[in-house]
Write a structure and sequence with these properties.
With about 130 residues, this protein is mainly alpha-helical. The protein contains four helices and no strands. It is rod-shaped and about 125 Å long.
């Protein structure tokens, strides 16, 4: 057998450029990831705010129920719980009140709470309740 003569190959259609969409796919994936991160951060921020509001409400409830007859316990509880209800507006007043309450701490026996300090503490609690 004799080999047949090879005919030159002829393309049926010309070469077509294929569009490269990989940059768009990459941009879409990055946008989706950023959107997911933003959603998670928003959710965490809202959760933190709800937890803070719950702690603040509990601190206010406990501050309103302070028993001023037990001076030492009232001063310690006020010092601890007051930090949860301070705002930039009443922070200076709270710190000044804490300085005045120092003599009632760190002693085995303390005198009864001064009427002026008791009034100031109650005023601070009322102001904190208003917001």
């Amino acid at each position: 057998m004799q080999p047949q003569t090879a005919l030159p190959l002829k393309d049926i259609k010309p070469i077509v450029d294929v569009p490269d969409l990989s940059a768009w796919f990459f941009a879409a994936i990055v946008a989706a990831i950023l959107l997911a991160i933003a959603a998670v951060l928003f959710w965490l921020r809202q959760r933190r705010k709800r937890r803070f509001d719950a702690r603040r409400a509990e601190a206010l409830r406990r501050l309103e129920a302070l028993d001023f007859s037990d001076t030492k316990k009232a001063v310690y509880d006020f010092s601890l719980l007051g930090h949860f209800v301070t705002t930039p507006k009443n922070d200076a007043a709270f710190k000044a009140l804490l300085r005045e309450l120092e003599p009632y701490k760190f002693k085995k026996e303390v005198p009864p709470l001064d009427a002026r300090l008791k009034t100031n503490m109650q005023r601070f609690i009322k102001e904190a309740k208003r917001g």
